[in-house]
Every structure is written in structure tokens, then in C-alpha cells.
């Protein structure tokens, strides 16, 4: 009984190491070296293959940046947009928070006036539709 290993909740701990695949059983430095040879598409596929591989990839800074850049290029559409986004991230964030029109001349013209009669009696409602023209 003592030479078969330690049992925890019915599973044998000594056999847990044999369930690892070849890459996961290697030391982290060697696993990182193997994953560093992959291109971005293969790296993304490897991160989807096993949860353990994804954890190994995300633990290394350069591999994580390579994976994030590739996924951002999928969202934005191209690698050049990713480079532009990374260079101007701060300015883009500031512009995104703005919720107003830029300074400039503005003229308004009433395009249409509509009178809506109330069904319950009382005064009618007049709706003015305006068109703004920015210069």
C-alpha cells in the first residue's frame, strides 16, 4: 500500500505527472523556447489547444505581447492599424472621451414645423425639426 503512491480523493498523484503532454512536462524555459519559434497564427492555435499551454504562453512577456498583437490585428483588421493604435493609444483614448462638437460656426435653420393634435384635449403640440450646418 505504501509503495503505490499517495491517494487524494481517489486519484493517484504519481500518475498525474504521466498525464502531461511532452511540452508541458518540460521546464518552463524550454517550453517558452519551443513556443517562441511559432508564428502568431500557430501560437494562437496552441493557446486554444490546451489550457496549460495557454498559461505557459501568457506567463512569458514576449509571447503574451505577440499573442495580444495578433488578436488585436484580427479585431482592427491589419497589422499597420495595430502599430498606429499602439503608438497613439493615449491620444485615441482622450479623443474617445470627448462628447462634444468642435468649435466652429454653426447655423440653424428650421426645416419643418408639425402640429400634433392631442387625443385627450388640451393644447396642440408643435414640433420643430431643425437642421444644423457646421462650417
Automatic annotation (TrEMBL):
Residues 20-67 form the F-box domain. InterPro entries: F-box-like_dom_sf, F-box_dom. Signal peptide: none annotated. Pfam families: F-box. SUPFAM superfamilies: F-box domain. This is F-box domain-containing protein. It comes from Loxostege sticticalis.
